[in-house]
Amino acid sequence: xxxxxxxxxSEEKVKIMRLFLLNPDTPFDSATIxxxxxxxxxxxxxxxxxxVKAGFVRPKNFTKEIERKQGGGVRIIKKRTSGWQLDxxxxxxxxxxxxxxxxxxxxxxxxxHRFKHxxxxxxxxxxxxxxxxxxxxxxxxxxxxxxxxKKSIETALRGIEAEVGKELSYAYFETQDFIYRLNVxxxxxxxxxxxxxxxxxxxxxxx
Length: 207
Prior knowledge:
Mean pLDDT: 88
Low-confidence stretches: none
Helix content: 40-55%
Largest sheet: 4 strands, mixed
Shape: globular
Radius of gyration: 19 Å
Distance between the termini: 30 Å
Structural class: alpha+beta
Number of strands: 6
Order of helices and strands: HHHHEEHHEEHEHHE
Strand content: 15-25%
């Protein structure tokens, strides 16, 4: 990410461009871009105008679904809003996609660091999917450890998603549960381990 930021001008621009490239059919308004990319509105205003002028994205009016708490449940309302969408006619689209998507979004050490402060004692972290450019993977991240806390894990994942540019598919297991599933040849576990993946942290010695 650091090298790309130097080439393209800023880390914020790289995050915005990756978001659109990995979600080519999805329009985003300013609030969603800031939330998904973890950038402040000022940075978005600074970068989006240049991307529009370059033809990388185009203005788009669309209907957005918003969750509103009501009573003891959640109500979905639809709201017309304005934003931007990737312009598939951008002349350098394939070249830019190759540059930004083929580049490693996060180093393995960075991924470990993101979870280091999340509650729990980690035993195994496996990455696949977007991290190794394999769209057929069952999960982007598989986490195994003890005393895991859902909220801490999700906070770490949201930060990684901002760097990567897409929502991640993930699963996490307590060590005992994972070992049991591994021994009974759980289909999900086998699908992750039997297909392309990378172990970024392994205290279990999983083959």
